[in-house]
Design a protein that fits this description.
mainly alpha, 11 helices, 77% helix, 3% strand
């Protein structure tokens, strides 16, 4: 039944459509495919939201491997709203992207823009839906790598410099995040976020976990461009194509606010509050 596989389709459809844009090559066809996929993804997100509202959180074990041994997609109420809003932003931006892209990007590179746009959308949706900390890293890098290319497609040469600066800072952020996740795995033996939320309070005061959270905080802050680690952001938004700036700025700002709200709700004590605050960022960011 298709409804049972909606969590996987939410990610698989834009992921498979990206290389199709490269094969099509013609700008009009690539745009039409991107437009159709973005609205299909929005429809799936709305269906998942309705399903969560009706029957509670939705879990989807990839390959039928149960968590925590396998990778689990988990859609709770907060995640469902994130999916809908990110998908809605992508669906609204895409119809207006055609004219903007034609004016700002050389014609022979337009199909590459749509391929990267779909990959970026894939990463954002995957970040919101995954329940595995390492799988989140994978989606984080899909989003970041495609964003580097999208920013570099700007009409000015300074877009290349902005993209390169973002690449360096993003790579540092990803490295810090990965080190933090590895240290949490060393202490808990799991990468499943639900298990981490259960097991980490028992070891929250250990030096290893505190160092891991420090790595996570710095790494995610670099990715989020949180002050004072935001130096790559102004030039990236200034010199990127207009549609890229509109898409990334809208999704990043929303996810940041959601992460802050999640940290306030989940922080119940001084010791576990730091843990849950980091898990809140892990659950909802770009």
């Amino acid at each position: 039944m298709i409804a049972a596989h909606l969590p996987a389709l939410q990610v698989v459809i834009p992921l498979m459509a990206a290389p199709l844009c490269v094969l099509l090559r013609r700008p009009v066809l690539a745009w039409a495919l991107t437009l159709a996929v973005s609205w299909v993804v929005l429809a799936i997100a709305v269906a998942l939201l309705l399903q969560v509202l009706e029957s509670g959180p939705v879990t989807y074990p990839l390959g039928n491997w149960a968590a925590p041994w396998g990778i689990e997609y988990r859609v709770d109420l907060a995640g469902a709203f994130v999916l809908v809003i990110v998908a809605a932003i992508g669906a609204v931006v895409t119809p207006y992207a055609r004219r903007s892209v034609e004016h700002e990007i050389p014609r022979d590179r337009i199909y590459l823009f749509y391929a990267m746009y779909l990959l970026c959308l894939t990463g954002l949706l995957g970040i919101a839906i995954t329940g595995d900390a390492f799988n989140l890293f994978v989606f984080l890098e899909i989003t970041s790598l495609s964003s580097y290319v999208l920013i570099s497609l700007g009409s000015e040469r300074r877009a290349l410099t902005a993209a390169y600066r973002y690449l360096i800072m993003g790579t540092l952020g990803a490295t810090f995040y990965l080190i933090g996740v590895a240290m949490m795995y060393m202490m808990t033996g799991t990468l499943n976020m639900a298990d981490l939320a259960t097991l980490m309070p028992a070891v929250a005061d250990t030096r290893t976990i505190l160092v891991a959270l420090a790595f996570l905080t710095v790494g995610i802050s670099l990715k989020l461009a949180l002050f004072p680690l935001h130096l790559w952001l102004p030039n990236a938004y200034t010199y990127a194509p207009s549609v890229v700036t509109a898409f990334l700025a809208a999704t990043a700002a929303f996810v940041l606010r959601t992460g802050q709200l999640s940290s306030v709700i989940k922080s119940s004590s001084a010791s576990t509050g730091v843990v849950y605050r980091s898990l809140g960022f892990l659950r909802v960011y770009l």
